[in-house]
Structures are given as C-alpha cells and as structure tokens.
Amino acid sequence: MQSTRTTPAAFWEGLSSPWNGCRYMWRQPGLWRFGLKPFLANLLVSAVFLVVLVGIVGYSLVTLHTYYSDGWLGWALEVLVAVLVLIVAMGISFVVWLILQDIFCGHYYAKLAEQVELQLGMKPEDIRDVSVVHQLRDTFSDVAFLLGVNGGFLLLNFVPGIGSAIGAAGSYYFTCMTLGCDFLEHPLSLRGKRRSERLAFARRHRAHTLGLGTGVAVVSLVPFLNAVLLTTAVTGAVLLHRQLIEDDPDRSSV
Question: Hey, which of 14, 72, 115, 190 would disulfide with 208, CB 3.0 to 4.6 Å?
Fold first, then answer.
C-alpha cells in the first residue's frame, strides 16, 4: 500500500526524521542512557573516517605531484587527477564508514530502537531479537551493491554530455535509498522482517525512504555532530515507521 501523501511531503517527512528523533529524545531524556554508547562509537567511527579520507587524499596528491610537467597543461592535469582522487577516496571512506557503523553501532542502535518501540506501546513479547550475524551479512550485501552501482555510475562521467549528470543522480538515488533502508531496518527487524520484506517496505514508501536516506547522508557529512544526529536518526526512523504503519490500512503489509 503506497503512502497517500504527495511525494514532496513524504520526502520531507523522511528527510526531517533525524531532527524529529532529536526532539523526541529531548522530551524523553532517559533514552540517552541507550543512546550514549552509539554516540561514543560514532565518535570513533567519525575519527577513523576522517583519518582514512585525509590520509588517502594527502598521500596520493603528494606522491603524484612530482609526475606533472610544468605549465598550464600539467596544472590542469593535476587538478583533474585531484578531483578524481577525492571522488574515489570519498567512495572508499564511505564504504569503510558503512561497515564500521554496523560493526560498532548496530547492536546499540537496535537496543535504542527497542526502547523507543516499547515507549510507543509495542509489547515486549512481540519484539524479535536482532541477529548480529544477519546485520553484518546485510551490511556486506549493501556494500557490495553500492560498490557495483556507484562504480558503474562513476564510469558514466567519461560519457560526453549528460553522462556526469546521470551518474550523479543515479549514485545519489541508490546510495540514499540504501541508507534509508538501513535505518528503517531497525524497527522492521524488531518485527522479525527479513531483508526481502524490508526492501519491499522501502519500495512501497520510496519517497519516505529516500528522504530518510538523504537526511542520514547530510548529517553524516558533519564531523562529530553526526555522532548525535545519526543516533537520533535511529529514533526518527522508528517514529517514521510507526507513522507509516498507522497510516496504512493494510497492516499485514508492514
């Protein structure tokens, strides 16, 4: 069952989920007892993310600098290569970030989501345990998918004309849809939904999922502040999911 909201409204509801989660946790400060550990883990992940990104870019640019000729042609080539190195480094760093997020934060995110669900009225006996093995398996599946898809879109940049625009749009869409699915996974997994069911739910609520993934992508780019907002995004994803299933008359599909 598709959401009855217009696409822009649905996208905005997903996009604002990290901030909605922040407001909810502000009104329910006891939740920060469960949010502290993923917050600290996020600080560690953010530090590793920055070190990897700066290290790859800095080392590559310094090493390659000696190979360019003098003059405007060498300068232009160096700028072009620097841009390509930055794009590749950001892609590698994002993959590292995605994996580390699940390894260090996934378990704590699940516990936070569980507490929010209990506050919202979910019965303890209805909650399903989230398997760490399944979480990691799904993460590596997402990483493999994103590497393949974004690798293909990266090649489109060499196509004259609209190749770069198509590549950027496609990369944005699939990356943010995957991030949205990852955060909606928390309330869905607590209901025992498997990967195929979670993906089907995301497709039924495509605009909400894309908005949520965009919000997650935006806050993840802000070093150290993302440690707070990615934690509250988990709460926001639970609130968003609850809103979607309450709006859907076919409860069996959610």
Answer: 14
